[in-house]
Structures are given as structure tokens and as C-alpha cells.
């Protein structure tokens, strides 16, 4: 347990050290703007904030369908809140240089669901927890890659 906390703290410290432009972008963006503003890291792609994303696939497989697909929302404070197909969850995600990302500990609800839903939920949360990098394909597709697999998200409403 202590080792996990130490790793998370080390990752967060590294994020702050490696990404001073993130702190500057947050200081200078004091306005509450509508639309999909983003945090820019140097001259790299913009990390999408204030945007809803709905999971499309995990490692190329459609695990979800209908209204119960997992979804996430990233706010300006880089808090990622979402629905995993069964429970609500939240986590802090810090973008780094070269489209890398550090994800903090997850807080997940405890509602019980059907076994097939729980298996898909576990796979999705492992992918979120193990996220190491992100990318955008156009303006409507977010790709998150890491130890738990690759999740493709499409822009939600």
C-alpha cells in the first residue's frame, strides 16, 4: 500500500517538474469559457478538457453497447470523472510532455452489477488506471494507451 502511494506521489511530482507549461496554462486561463478548451503542453497537442468522452472500444473490441457505455469528463482542474458501465468513478490525470499521462488513485462506487458488466467494468478501470499515454485523432476521437490496454473514446454530448 505504501509503495503504491509512494509511486503515485513520485508520478505527480514528476508531472509538476516535467510540465511547467501546464501550471502556466492554468494560471493564465482564469476565464470560464464554454466549448472545448484544452491545456497545451509546449507546442504539442492540446490535452482535451471540458469535454465528454464515451468509450467506443477496448483493444479493438466492442465491450459495450447502448446507453451503459463507460464515459469520462475531464475538467479544467484535470479531474477525470466518469461512469464505468456499472459505477461512478473519479481520478486525477496529469498530462506530461510527448502525450504521456500520469493517473492518480481511483475512487470507485460499490454498486453490484451483472457478472458480464463487472468483467467489462474491471477491464475498463484497469485501462484507465494503467494509462501511460494519450492521443487525438481529429477532434472527435481520444485514444488512451497503457498497461491495461487501449481505449478509444468518441466525443460525447
Provide a compact summary of the structure.
This protein is an alpha+beta fold and 157 residues long. It contains 3 helices and 11 strands, in the order H-H-E-E-E-E-E-E-E-E-H-E-E-E.
3D structure, described in words:
By secondary structure, the chain is α+β, with helices and mostly antiparallel strands. It has one domain (2-28, 38-155): Lipocalin, CATH 2.40.128.270. The chain has 3 helices and 11 strands; from the N terminus they run ααββββββββαβββ. Strands 3, 4, 5, 6, 7, 8, 9, 10 and 11 form a 9-stranded antiparallel β-sheet that branches. 28% of the residues are buried. The model is unreliable at 1-33 (pLDDT under 50).
Secondary-structure topology with pairs:
Elements (H helix, E strand, L loop, with lengths): L1 H17 L1 H9 L9 E3 L5 E3 L2 E8 L12 E4 L4 E5 L4 E8 L5 E3 L3 E2 L6 H15 L1 E7 L3 E6 L2 E7 L2
Antiparallel strand pairs: 1-2, 3-4, 3-11, 4-5, 5-6, 6-7, 6-8, 9-10, 10-11
From the N-terminal CA to the C-terminal CA, the straight-line distance is 38 Å
Task: Based on Cα principal axes, name the global outline.
Answer: globular
Helical content (DSSP H or I, runs of 4+): 25-40%
Got a strand count? 11
- Tally of helical runs: 3
**Order of helix and strand elements from N to C terminus:** HHEEEEEEEEHEEE
User: What is the CATH topology descriptor?
Assistant: Lipocalin
CATH architectural grouping: Beta Barrel
Note the main sheet.
9 strands, antiparallel
Contiguous uncertain segments of 5+ residues = 1-33
Number of domains: 1
Rounded to an integer in angstroms, the radius of gyration calculated over CA atoms is 15 Å
Top-tier CATH class: Mainly Beta
Helix-and-strand structural type: alpha+beta
Amino acid at each position: 500500500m505504501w509503495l503504491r502511494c509512494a509511486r503515485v506521489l513520485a508520478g505527480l511530482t514528476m508531472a509538476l517538474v516535467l510540465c511547467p507549461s501546464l501550471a502556466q496554462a492554468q494560471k493564465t486561463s482564469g476565464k470560464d469559457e464554454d466549448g472545448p478548451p484544452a491545456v497545451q503542453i509546449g507546442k504539442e497537442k492540446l490535452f482535451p478538457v471540458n469535454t465528454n468522452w464515451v468509450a467506443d472500444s477496448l483493444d479493438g473490441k466492442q465491450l459495450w453497447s447502448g446507453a451503459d457505455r463507460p464515459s469520462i469528463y475531464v475538467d479544467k482542474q484535470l479531474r477525470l470523472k466518469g461512469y464505468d458501465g456499472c459505477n461512478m468513478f473519479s481520478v486525477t490525470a496529469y498530462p506530461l510532455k510527448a502525450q504521456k499521462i500520469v493517473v492518480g488513485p481511483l475512487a470507485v462506487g460499490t454498486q453490484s452489477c451483472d457478472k458480464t458488466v463487472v468483467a467489462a467494468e474491471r477491464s475498463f478501470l484497469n485501462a484507465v488506471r494503467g494509462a501511460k499515454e494519450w492521443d487525438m485523432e481529429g477532434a472527435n476521437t481520444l485514444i488512451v494507451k497503457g498497461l491495461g490496454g487501449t481505449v478509444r473514446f468518441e466525443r460525447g454530448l
